[in-house]
Amino acid sequence: MTMVTRFAPSPTGYLHLGHAFSAIFAHDAARRNGGRFILRIEDIDTGRCRPQFVEAIEEDLAWLGLAWDEPPRRQSAHFDDYRSALARLEAMDLLYPCFCTRADIAQQIERAAEAPHGPDGPRYPGLCRALPAAEAARRRQAGEPFALRLDMTKATALAGPLTWRDGEAGEVDAEPQLFGDVVLARKDTPTSYHLAVTVDDALQGVTLVTRGADLFAATHVHRLLQALLGLPVPAWHHHRLLTDAAGCRLAKRSDAVSLRTLRSQGLMPGEVRALMGAPLLPDRRANELGQAQGG
Ligand SMILES: [Zn+2]
Q: What is the pLDDT of residues 245-273, one digit of tens each?
């Protein structure tokens, strides 16, 4: 089976060196193994994404010498795919509507005796999970905005124990329960990061998901969604994150210097590659990973 990797940025700003690292990592893994490299534009957050950043992403990647093997998929053009996945989970009785505002949730957490934290912050305390079905239906019909949350206890019980493979960590036990009842559809968007990524990786035949170590924990949720939706299971490789001279992660810095600024200062594509250091993904290992579980 052919290895398929992807780079999946959000067009909310210009790419910086951290993005370049991720893109080169995914691209080179595919190229070294005779595979395919695809570009996906993660623009479900239509309020924050801008068309000019999509153009800039493509231009910057081309400047780096990276070519993708099919037209980029734009998530905002595929909301129906995410709606189908939601309908399937809803038919399995794994979703519930959550009408809480941010303020409601903050209040619930304040009042709770304990507020367990997950990888994304405090876990949702579950107020709406306990809403009587009739009341939830009435509020939905009345047009009250709601998000859809995954009932994590039900979902993990249904899926049973799961594992996934990472190129650096090896076999990992999936622990999606760390996240609590994650949002799978936002109030204003018929999907969420977790759902859209999982559905797209399957639809696009991605066999090796490469991305920064900051998304390691998110994979627990993605693995669970794959099990629930009956999707193929890729391999993963979470790579180290580039840091600046002070050791601060570039992804976390709003003022991280963009590739185009560095370009205007005379940076050459070859120098970007040199900054990345030696390739972290030896060919043979990448090949094994990409072919182990995909399809
Ligand atoms: Zn709620």
A: 666 666 545 556 789 988 988 989 988 88
Q: Ligand 1 center to residue 158 CA distance, Å?
A: 23
Surrounding residues of ion ligand 1, Cβ less than 5 A: 98, 100, 127-128
Rounded-to-integer distance, Cα 173 and Cα 99, Å: 32
Tokens standing for residue 45: 């957050």
User: Number of helices and strands (H, E) in the chain?
Assistant: 11, 12
Tell me how far the alpha carbon of residue 127 lies from the centroid of ligand 1, in angstroms. Answer: 5
Catalytic residue of the set 252, 261, 268, 295: 252
How far is Cα 125 from Cα 115, in angstroms, rounded to an integer?
7
Q: Which of 40-54, 193-207, 230-244 has the lowest mean pLDDT?
A: 230-244
Ligand 1 geometric centre to CA of 100 (Å):
4
- Using CA atoms, how far apart are residues 110 and 131, in angstroms rounded to an integer? 20
Give me ligand 1 centre to Cα 97, in Å: 7
Residue 13, judged by CB atoms within 10 A of its CB (0-12, 13-18, 19+), counts as middle
Q: Rounded CA gap, 145 and 139, in Å? A: 9
Instruction: Give pTM, 2 decimals.
Output: 0.90
Residue 252 appears among annotated catalytic residues: yes
